[in-house]
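Hey,

Quick one before I head out. I ran the complex with pyridoxal-5'-phosphate overnight. Inputs first:
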Amino acid sequence: MVEQNYFLLPQDRLPKAWYNIVADLPFEVPPLLHPVTREPTRLPPPLFCDALIEQEETRERYVEIPEPVREVYRLWRPTPLVRARRLEQALDTPAHIYYKYEGASPPGSHKPNTAVAQAFYSKEAGVKRLVTETGAGQWGSALAFACNLFGMECGVYMVKVSYYQKPYRRVLMEAWGARVVPSPSPETRAGQSILERDPDSPGSLGIAISEAVEVAATHDDTKYSLGSVLNHVLLHQTIIGEEARLQMEMAGEAPDVVIGCVGGGSNFAGLAFPFLRDRLQNGVSTRFVAVEPTACPSMTKGIYAYDYGDTAHLAPLAKMDTLGHTFIPASIHAGGLRYHGMAPLVSALHRHGYIEPVAYPQLAVFEAAVLFARTEGFIPAPETAHAIRAAIDEALAAREAGEKRVILFNFSGHGHFDMGAYEQYFAGKLENYEYPAERVLEALKDLPKVEEQ
Ligand SMILES: *Cc1c(COP(=O)(O)O)cnc(C)c1O
């Protein structure tokens, strides 16, 4: 019998619904608060269309995926589940390592799973343009791709340091018809005020969010779009885990540990939540490991508190694991993992003991990326390589313990636009960045004061 590496779902088994974990939580997730009144609030209607505002707060267990969204998903979904046998052999481990390959989408990551849904609902609501921020460019390119398919305009505020470090991602967005602006920009009040204080600001996701939010708030035909953190984004990403559950069944196994890298938490949640459902509903003892960089350790070193989502204080306050909204992390290459906060749902699950966070410095991460590339062939994005590092360490721990462990991680995206980072790694020019304790303490001083009931 051929040893199977690749588990493919036929397209007619593409899941019909996203999974909303809120329906199964044994605790309440603290609500969003209005940035001025500090009262519980919905997502602001000037920024989001009604369908997404409703999804943000729904308690329905399953949300049907609209057929036009499934039709676009079928351009690359279901994505493969792969058994990493060569990696297992290289590690000489009894563990079985599986990964879900989200690099198969046209933009090369999991991000279009939500971009396509957001573009669809916004188009339905008569919106003409979506604006957003992007760090490394993956989210911007996913939204550019999605807007193009639904005949919408797309504006992207791209963190300035990435705009110049990663010109090809900008061109990718432009190829799909988006307009890309380096942030902080003089086009918005938020950008202007940063530039007045620091004309050479490298930008940050927080600043770019403020710019995009401001543009959406001041234009009737424009809505804002966020690529991570919010409940509706995590909801859309659960297509990953719903497929993976069916594929693990095809493989005849169940994961002992599910792993994902975390920036805002969406790819991790997308894979993990459908498996967490089995733990919440049936007490299955699966572990869930969220992996972050030591340079931006919101889960391992941050605090669980209400914080602003953006530097200009326009977005609602969310209770989350945070390093403080004024925290500007070092320019590590995993640009998608540099956000100061973590999804409220992921943070609450961490708080209640369902998620184990770990942090790795970037040299250990690139070492894992290269081992993966030289065994399994695919080149991971630096963000993804954080999950690979943790998967490898789980497999090594299984070897130590002499136990068969079934490990499943999310291959959130390929690294074809990250060759500059690999080049620096090979040249010995990458450095580890530890958590700058004083700077984060400084940033935590700026947390909003919120009295909780
Ligand atoms: C954006 C991105 C991430 C981090 O975002 P999450 O919302 O935490 O998933 C991870 N991997 C890749 C490839 C990304 O593009």
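The mean pLDDT is 94.

Talk tomorrow,
K.
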